[in-house]
Write a structure and sequence with these properties.
CATH class of the largest domain: Alpha Beta
Number of strands: 10
Largest sheet: 10 strands, mixed
Shape: globular
Strand content: 15-25%
CATH superfamily of the largest domain: Spore Coat Polysaccharide Biosynthesis Protein SpsA, Chain A
CATH architecture of the largest domain: Alpha-Beta Complex
Structural class: alpha/beta
Radius of gyration: 20 Å
Number of domains: 3
Number of helices: 14
Distance between the termini: 41 Å
Length: 338
C-alpha cells in the first residue's frame, strides 16, 4: 500500500467513463511506477459499468488514490476539475485504456528537474492493439523548436496520456482544457508560446488503438490536425473562435456504427504492419475486412501490396498513407518481426 506524502511531487490525473475493459491495467501501471511520490486523482465520469467497483477496490488498497464522481460531463470537464484539485508541482496525464511503463514518471520528473526552462515533457510511445500486442511506435527527438514546428504545422507530437507538465505553466489559462475534441492540441498550442517542450526519447507509454477510442467513434476526427494546418486555428483573430468552430463541426459528425469501427481498427493495424514490413501479419489482419463493404476494396488494395518485395511494399504504404517526414523518420517497428 502506498503512503500519501504531505505534498507529493507529482499529481497523476485520469478520467474514466465505462472503462472496465482496460482500467485495471491502466491503474496498476501507475501504482507500479519506480517513482512513488505521487497522488493519483481519478474521475469517475458517470460510468454505468463496473468501473466504480474497480475504482473503489483500488482506492481501498492504496491511499494515494483520490476518487471523484460526477454525472457524465466528458473528458474536458473532468480534467479541468481534477487539475483544480491537484497539489503537486508536476501534473501527469494518464488515459484509462493505456499503460505507463515503470520508468515513465521517474524519467519525466528527472527531465523537468534538470531542465527548468521546459514546462511540458512527453515520452515516446508504442501503439498497441486491444489485446496488448505492439503494432508500431513513435519516438521523437528532444528538440523544443522542432516539436513546436511540428505542432504548429498540424501534427500532435505528444501522446496525450504520456505528458507531464508544470502546474505553473497552465496558471491563468482559460480552461485549461477547452473543447470536446482536440483539447490536448489546443492546450499544447497555447503553451508553445509560454514555455519550452521536451521529450524523453524512449517509448515509455503504451497507447492503445481500439474501436472504442474517441477518434474511432467519431467520423473524421483526425481532420482536426489537417484543419489546424490549413489555418483554421491560426486564421482567426481570436484563437478560441477558430477552435470552437472546428469543435462544433466535429460534434456534428455522425457516430460510426460498430461494424465500421471494427473494420477501421483492422484497417489501421493492418496498414501499420505492412508499412513496417511485416507482410504476413498485415495480410492476416486485412483479410478480416473482406466482408465489410466499406473497407473490402481498401483491404484488397493493401493485400495486393503485401505480395510485393518487403521494402517496396513499405515505401508504397508510407507514400500512399501521406506519411510526413516526422513519422517516417521516427516511427518504431514492432519489436518482433514475422
Amino acid at each position: 500500500m502506498g503512503n500519501r506524502s504531505e505534498v507529493p511531487v507529482v499529481s497523476v490525473i485520469m478520467s474514466v467513463y465505462n472503462g472496465e475493459r482496460f482500467l485495471k491495467e491502466a491503474i496498476e501501471s501507475i501504482l507500479q511506477q519506480s517513482f512513488q511520490d505521487f497522488e493519483f486523482l481519478i474521475m469517475d465520469d458517470g460510468a454505468t459499468d463496473s468501473t466504480p467497483h474497480i475504482l473503489a477496490h483500488f482506492a481501498q488498497q492504496d491511499q494515494r488514490i483520490r476518487l471523484f464522481h460526477q454525472q457524465n460531463r466528458g473528458l474536458t470537464a473532468s480534467l479541468n476539475t481534477l487539475i483544480r484539485k491537484t497539489r503537486a508541482r508536476y501534473i501527469a496525464r494518464m488515459d484509462a485504456d493505456d499503460i505507463s511503463l515503470p520508468e515513465r514518471l521517474k524519467s519525466e520528473v528527472e527531465y523537468l528537474d534538470k531542465n527548468p526552462d521546459v514546462g511540458l515533457v512527453a515520452t515516446g510511445k508504442w501503439n498497441i492493439d486491444a489485446e496488448g500486442h505492439v503494432i508500431d511506435g513513435l519516438c521523437l527527438p528532444d528538440d523544443s523548436s522542432r516539436l513546436k514546428k511540428w505542432l504548429r504545422s498540424g501534427h500532435n507530437p505528444f501522446p496525450h496520456g504520456s505528458v507531464m507538465f508544470r502546474k505553473e505553466v497552465i496558471e491563468n489559462l482559460e480552461g485549461p482544457y477547452r473543447f470536446t475534441y482536440g483539447q490536448d492540441i489546443d492546450l499544447w498550442l497555447r503553451l508553445s508560446g509560454r514555455t519550452e517542450f521536451g521529450m524523453v526519447t524512449k517509448p515509455l507509454y503504451l497507447q492503445r488503438r481500439h474501436k472504442d477510442t474517441i477518434s474511432a467513434k467519431v467520423k473524421d476526427v483526425r481532420s482536426l490536425q489537417w484543419n489546424t494546418q490549413q489555418g483554421l486555428y491560426k486564421g482567426k483573430e481570436n484563437e478560441a473562435e477558430g477552435w470552437q468552430e472546428l469543435d462544433h463541426k466535429l460534434k456534428s459528425k455522425p457516430v460510426i456504427p460498430e461494424d465500421i469501427r471494427e473494420a477501421q481498427e483492422k484497417y489501421i493495424i493492418g496498414k501499420a504492419l505492412l508499412g513496417n514490413g511485416h507482410l504476413a501479419s498485415g495480410r492476416r489482419v486485412l483479410l478480416g475486412n473482406l466482408s465489410n463493404k466499406r473497407y473490402a476494396l481498401k483491404a484488397v488494395f493493401l493485400i495486393t501490396f503485401s505480395f510485393l518485395p518487403r521494402q517496396l511494399c513499405r515505401h508504397l504504404i508510407i507514400a500512399l498513407g501521406k506519411r510526413n517526414d516526422l513519422w517516417a523518420e521516427y516511427r518504431l517497428p514492432p519489436p518482433v518481426p514475422d
